[in-house]
Amino acid sequence: MNPNTSLSYLDQSADVKARFDRINQRETILEVRNLGKRFRSQQGEVEALRGINFSVRRREFVCVIGPSGCGKSTLIRILAGLESHTSGDVLLDGKPVKGPGQDRGMVFQGYSLFPWLTVKKNVMFGPQMNGRSHDEAERDARLWLDLVGLDKFADAYPHQLSGGMRQRVAIARALVNQPRILLMDEPFGALDAQTRAKMQSHLIDIWKNIDVTVLFITHDLDEAIYLADRILVLKAHPGEVQEVIEVPVPRPRTPAQFNSPEFRATKARLEELIHPAPEPESEDEQAVQPHLIRFTNVMDNVE
Amino acid sequence: MNVKHISSTLKTLFTRLILPAAAALSISAHAAQPLKIGYSDWPGWVAWQVAIDKGWFKEAGVPVTFEWFDYSASMDAFAAGKIDAVTMTNGDALVTGAAGGKSVMVMLTDYSNGNDMIIGKPGVRSIKDLKGKKVAVEMGFVEHLLLLNGLKKAGMKESDVTLVNAKTNEMPQMLASGDVVAIGAWQPIAGQTMKSVPGARPIYTSADEPGLIYDVLAVNPASAKQRRADWIKVVKVWDRVVKYINDPKTQPDAVKIMAARVGVSPETYLPLLKGTRLLSLDEAKKIYVKGDGFKTLYGSSKIADEFNVANDVYKSPQDLDSYLDASFTNAK
Amino acid sequence: MSLIAKLTDSETRKRALLGIGSFLLPLLVWSLVSYVPFIWHPKVEVTVPGGVDYFQVGMLVDRVQFEDEVAYAREQHLALPAGKPANPIYLPAPHEVAKAFYTGFTKPPVQKDAPWLHESLWHSIQIIFWGFLISSLIGVPLGILAGTYTTFARLSEPFIEYFRYLPAPAFGALAVAILGIYDGPKIAIIVIGTLFQQVLIIANTTRKLEATIIEAARTLGARGVKLLTKVVVPGILPDLYRDQRILLGWAWTYLIVAELIGTSSGITFYITQQARYQHFDNVYAAIMIIGIIGFGTDLILGGLGRRLFPWDRAQDRR
Ligand SMILES: Nc1ncnc2c1ncn2[C@@H]1O[C@H](COP(=O)(O)OP(=O)(O)O)[C@@H](O)[C@H]1O
Ligand SMILES: [Mg+2]
Question: Of A241, B76, C111, C283, which residue is most buried, by most CB within 10 angstroms?
Answer without folding.
Answer: B76
